[in-house]
User: Fold these one by one.
Assistant:
Number 1:
Amino acid sequence: GESVGLHLPTLSVQEGDNSIINCAYSNSASDYFIWYKQESGKGPQFIIDIRSNMDKRQGQRVTVLLNKTVKHLSLQIAATQPGDSAVYFCAEKGGLGTSYGKLTFGQGTILTVHP
Amino acid sequence: DAGVTQSPTHLIKTRGQQVTLRCSPKSGHDTVSWYQQALGQGPQFIFQYYEEEERQRGNFPDRFSGHQFPNYSSELNVNALLLGDSALYLCASSSVGTGHTDTQYFGPGTRLTVL
């Protein structure tokens, strides 16, 4: 079936470094993508989203890149801080009429930031 | 502005019992989605409610049912509990109507343990 997956399950970086978390998706009909951050014992927290008519979107210290040709999504975190340590999930939603409302999540990447 | 709230925080049940989990959406949101998150996995879509009707359903048995009230709050009911139902149950809200947003904002979750 259709799925969203991650290339790397864990990522360790030093404080101040830039982090890149990757995600591959298989549903070519997906038109909306979201990155969530989940800390232990908490619900997923929205970080940034992007629609399929864009290839880049920037937020505060975060950038999401979308490559529809190879069905690849990435999250870049600038100047990573210890508070960024968490599990990061990418999620996708298909167009209306295909998977209205349903988010399909990947397995997640554990980001550990060392002081 | 209150975010998504869920109750209870934790719950312990025995096999065969029934459980009801509750969710209040973010202010201004009219759509509630429920997800099950097993330990070490990404959230899995259970179903979504809009206008008090189930609009979309994931691959979950009929033991899982829900309801949405006129004030947009929602309940998730699980009957005949199995050990495998132990998970974090997440509620997410979004808006289809006025102020439409595809972004789903998650609550803190209810940790269900089935013994």
Number 2:
Amino acid sequence: DGGITQSPKYLFRKEGQNVTLSCEQNLNHDAMYWYRQDPGQGLRLIYYSQIVNDFQKGDIAEGYSVSREKKESFPLTVTSAQKNPTAFYLCASSMTSQGALYGYTFGSGTRLTVV
Amino acid sequence: GDSVTQMEGPVTLSEEAFLTINCTYTATGYPSLFWYVQYPGEGLQLLLKATKADDKGSNKGFEATYRKETTSFHLEKGSVQVSDSAVYFCALLGTGANSKLTFGKGITLSVRP
């Protein structure tokens, strides 16, 4: 079945460490997105990519980095510069940058906790 | 910029009660509107959508009508079930070439037997 796979489901990070969250899709979608979810704040866009080897900052990109070397993959690195990284991270994809007309497909999320 | 406002939560209902979750938006032109649902520990699933004024989206007994005059997209269900307990997000996609989905803050619905 086609879908988006995020891994790991739970991730623990020590202060000062970088960690990378994986997102893989086999839907042949062009566009991919990373959102951060905090209680009571909804979803906030971190980064998005409409095509391979290209990506743009979202509303809260500081302290994060991404790459898009393959169409299927859009990993997110949470750097030590992100001061409050504890959150639930959701990856999504769509057919094109206007593909929300057909719905975004979301992964099951990664819960990151700083210890 | 585009924004979505949802009613404050959480909402707790008894099984078979009527549900209304309010959603209003601010956007230029005619955005597309969506309701997403998130079950505990999972990602978001598209529940329903409407792409133009007066359209009604429906799925699994839920309905929402795109009201341009009141800039609203309220979610309704005539008889909720315990399995409807989840977080519900209203979202919009603007008309610009590089628009992305903008979400409301979400509202938690709990349905008790």
Number 3:
Amino acid sequence: DTGVSQDPRHKITKRGQNVTFRCDPISEHNRLYWYRQTLGQGPEFLTYFQNEAQLEKSRLLSDRFSAERPKGSFSTLEIQRTEQGDSAMYLCASSHPGQGDTGELFFGEGSRLTVL
Amino acid sequence: AQSVTQLGSHVSVSEGALVLLRCNYSSSVPPYLFWYVQYPNQGLQLLLKYTTGATLVKGINGFEAEFKKSETSFHLTKPSAHMSDAAEYFCAVSGLEYGNKLVFGAGTILRVKS
């Protein structure tokens, strides 16, 4: 399978714990995006990388959230001191060079976080 | 703030009937326009897109959408619904006024009745 893969698919944690999600993009894609999707809403942009550089962060990304893409390949999204409001589906997407600005993104199946 | 509006959070049609899902955007410059579909427990899949050129765009699974600049709309249609079309559909836009990232509407859940 050469699509975008995310791990874990489901995570249940207690309030206050830290969680980390991993995303492996399609190998030749240089842009990688993180989105958050809550029930009844469309995906909301969190941040994106071009290669290893984090080019934009949404105001939704509080200081408890950090994302990295150290070698320009896979990316991690860490949430520290989780709150119940962090419960959501976290989506990763990647795009091919030259396609990114036209918005055609390839999405993974998401990582669902439940904070108890 | 620039936005995308999908009219109707739920749409129900009978199998074989016309599907019409509505999307309007707010932008002074025509953006790039997309429809994505999300089946249960799956990621988003691109149905079709409009960037430049012909305003009637054909996508996968028999769907098409027409960009109407005067109405700032990009409605999604399919002449005859199939049970397998039941899913959630998202309209999305990108372009300079959206910071060159994809901005999504709230989604429309399509139900197909037999």
Number 4:
Amino acid sequence: DGGITQSPKYLFRKEGQNVTLSCEQNLNHDAMYWYRQDPGQGLRLIYYSQIVNDFQKGDIAEGYSVSREKKESFPLTVTSAQKNPTAFYLCASSNFGTFGAFFGQGTRLTVV
Amino acid sequence: AQTVTQSQPEMSVQEAETVTLSCTYDTSESDYYLFWYKQPPSRQMILVIRQEAYKQQNATENRFSVNFQKAAKSFSLKISDSQLGDAAMYFCAHQNRDDKIIFGKGTRLHILP
């Protein structure tokens, strides 16, 4: 089955530690995205990538980093520089002109 | 700048009635797509309907339809014969040719039995 897999579903980390969220897709989409969702804020774009080895900052990229070494994979690292990392993170993929973005099930990150 | 605005944080509708959710957007592009997504309590994002900017005809999907006003940069969602399962957060989204997809802040829809 084609789709997007995010792992893990729940993640707990201590303050000051970097943490990497995984996102894999087998839809053969060129573009991939990371969004952060907080109550009342909707989905805010962190980073997106149109092709391998290239990515663009979104509206809230500070404190985050990404890589795109393979078409299928777009991991997100939440660094210790991110001041409020506790949130729900969504990964998506898309091709312009197709049926919009397909989403993973999300990762709930809690930093204590 | 690419922006999406949803001015209704919450709405309620009686079961079997019709409700319209509002969305406005801004872009300097002429070729783009617009979408409405539904997010139920499971938090899974579900595509409801999409509209291609170069098509004048409004998109419809069963009980869901849009009113696309390109000049006004307006893209509202109409849900007919509302059902209890329609209760969810609804997000409007815009995708430019550079693949960037921006979402609005969402509208929480309550269905009253």
